[in-house]
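Q: Start with the shorter request: fold the first protein.
A: Done. Sequence, then structure:
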Amino acid sequence: MNLIDIRLVGTQILGFLLLLWALRAWVWGPVLKGLEQRKQAIAGRFADADRAQAAADALKAQYEQKLKGADAEARARIQQAMAEGQKLAGEVKAQAQAESQQRLERAADEIERERERAKEGFKLQVVSLSIRAAEKILRQKLDNESQRKLVGEFVDEVGAL
């Protein structure tokens, strides 16, 4: 009793080997080739993604640098504007003080001129009164009491001015 038939086993082995060879030639090769192509496509996509990520990181760094530069520039402009404002305020203050000083000087000059005019007017009045008093004295022959009365009137007129 031969349970194993060698011919049958040999035929099955030969059929299995032929099947493996056929699968390898027509199926396994294209499947491996397809898998390799897919592996390369996935690797290419990862490489593209890495390049895109690197480009995005570089762009992000560039934008952050520009943002820092813009912040620094904005701060510099604000400081410059503040300095110009302070300078302008100082100039306006100095100009206002100069104008105020000029007005004070003009007012003092005007007061001095008015004082001189008043003195001149007073002198003219004194002269006029003196002339009138002299005229009165000359027109009258006066005694001592009349002269005192006349001088008193003159002094009263001068005091009223």
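Q: Next, the second protein, separately.
A: Sequence, then structure:
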Amino acid sequence: MQGIRARVAAIDRGVLRAEGAVVAILVAVMTAIIFAQVVFRYVLSSPLVWSEELARYLFVWITMVGAGAAVHLGQHYGLDILAKLLPSPLQKLAGFLASVLIGASAVTLIWQGLKEAAGAMNHAASSVEVPMVWFYAAIPIGGALMLWHVLARMVTLGFGASALSAHGAAHAD
């Protein structure tokens, strides 16, 4: 079992690194687009008509990919003050239930995101003329990343690991 845990933990760290790289690239591109828009609008008096829309869609991708990383890092908001007052076995149950709720939310994002993306297959963004499916795809992909991290936490740290702590901060039983 330790071999499986180690492999899942290694894959999970790789997924986290990839998420970080994707978010960094998207933030850099979004920043460059917004900077160019400011220069074109206020210096050259010729605004870029596509920049606001593309920056908005990049922000959605940043948010959804970042949500997956936040699950791994235990950075989502949570109220654990009551759980910490519980005896240890009930704390583990509360951790499991929190993980199940996060997993259910992720499955909902995947399911509904796939439906939205499928509905956007024949539509294009108004100013950048890119199929909207590329922008809607952020929702199920973000949900899948979140679900992966929840399941990886359960495999590597046990079913009762707190969903509000980072993978490295929690301890397997």
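Q: Describe the second briefly.
A: Residues 37 and 43 are 10 Å apart (CA to CA). Residues 2-157 form one domain.
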